[in-house]
Amino acid sequence: MQDIRWNTFWVLLFISFLSLIVWGFKSLEVASLFFILCLSIYLLSHVYWIYRLNKWLKNPNLSTIPDGSGIWEEIFAILYREYRKQKRSKSELTTTLGRFMTAAEAIPDGIVALNQNNEIEWCNKPSEKMLGINLSKDINQPIKYLLRETNFTEYLNSNIYNDSLKLISWRNTSRSFEILLVPFGASQKLLICRDIAQIEKNDSIKRDFIANVSHELKTPLTVIVGFLETLSDMKNEFNEKTYSYLQMMLEQSDRMNKLVEDLLQLSSIESNAAPAEKKEIDMLHLFKNLKKDSDLISGKLHTINMSIKKNISLLGYEKEIYSAFVNLVSNAIRYTEKGGSINVIWDMKNQNPYFEVQDSGIGIDQKLIPRLTERFYRINSDRGRNTGGTGLGLSIVKHVCIRHQAQIEITSQVGKGSQFKIIFPQERLSLKK
């Protein structure tokens, strides 16, 4: 641009110099007319090249770009280079976008791009099939007009997308989807939809298999345990070595019986995905039974303290709640040495009732905490077996929490003990006067 300004300056200087020469040979009037004429020709040439530029901009093409003359030659040369560079960048961008679109279409999950107003900008073929979207007709349509589910609308408006949302297909109730919203850019979102019907079917088959096997094992186990208990009462009929074998058989039969009972309970809770009933629970009676069972499990070898707020009642399914509470307490007893202390707390914080168990046990490594609620997972396998644990207690607790819309929080420090807390939502609270 600086060269163009200097070029214009030298042209005007040259016209002025020629006008001075004309003034020297002629009069001032002639020189002025000569200056005006030259300046007019110069300006008209600019008007001409502006006209050519405007005409080219209406239909830009590298092959038809004007050559120009004077300063316009340089302007058109710069324009040629920039247009060529832009065209190359556009070609590369189109190629990259094409590859992205091809890759997005190959993904089995449904993907929908939403703008800041939650309107559909683009979607791939799987999402059209899963969600019933027709991109040619539904582009720029708000997604909530197509997914008219109350749960989805609340999820979309919450602006909290840490967890996914499960939806039953409104077109085919035998199919279910998992939906996750992922914010990106300024205020845009990606809606990712996955068909989980087969996964749920497999889980259902697995649950049914475990429940059926556990149920079938229940009867023969009851018979075996009954006979072993009868034989155990006939101590004088056996020598000491044979009697010790009988006791070992009885212990393992009891352990297997507990495992079957826990499997049946877990299968029962898992098979019922609906939220638990909101029936008022007599918490004082529940904690009275919990204290009695805790002392029985401990064998009076631990100090069990209970801090219970009497005016806080819970709305839920009593059997499941008690199962979760007793599992947490028995878990604390199992991993606390003899003479250790266990604190059981029932209180309220920020209008949310919570149940907490604190122990002075062996503690848990931080990296192991996320796995604690997995089935059959134990921190110390030998210790769990020796103390009669089945490895299903915390998994039962997790599913009871899901049924009651509660959250479980676990904090621990190796060698200093652990704290397990179940925080119930406010709608599960019932206050007594």
Automatic annotation (TrEMBL):
Top-rank taxon, per record: Bacteria
GO cellular component terms attached to this protein's record: plasma membrane
Domain Histidine kinase: 212-428
Gene: vicK
UniProt GO molecular function: ATP binding; phosphoprotein phosphatase activity; phosphorelay sensor kinase activity
Its job: Member of the two-component regulatory system PhoR/PhoB involved in the phosphate regulon genes expression. PhoR may function as a membrane-associated protein kinase that phosphorylates PhoB in response to environmental signals.
Reactions this protein catalyses: ATP + protein L-histidine = ADP + protein N-phospho-L-histidine
This protein's UniProt keywords: ATP-binding, Cell membrane, Kinase, Membrane, Nucleotide-binding, Phosphate transport, Phosphoprotein, Transferase, Transmembrane, Transmembrane helix, Transport, Two-component regulatory system
Subcellular location: Cell inner membrane
PROSITE patterns: HIS_KIN
Enzyme Commission code: 2.7.13.3
The protein, known as: Phosphate regulon sensor protein PhoR
Single biological process term from Gene Ontology: phosphate ion transport
Pfam families membership: HATPase_c, HisKA, PAS_8, PhoR
InterPro entries: BphY/WalK/GraS-like (IPR050351), HATPase_C_sf (IPR036890), HATPase_dom (IPR003594), His_kinase_dom (IPR005467), HisK_dim/P_dom (IPR003661), HisK_dim/P_sf (IPR036097), PAS (IPR000014), PAS-like_dom_sf (IPR035965)
Topological type in the membrane: Multi-pass membrane protein
Segments passing through the bilayer: 7-25, 31-51
EC class (word): transferase
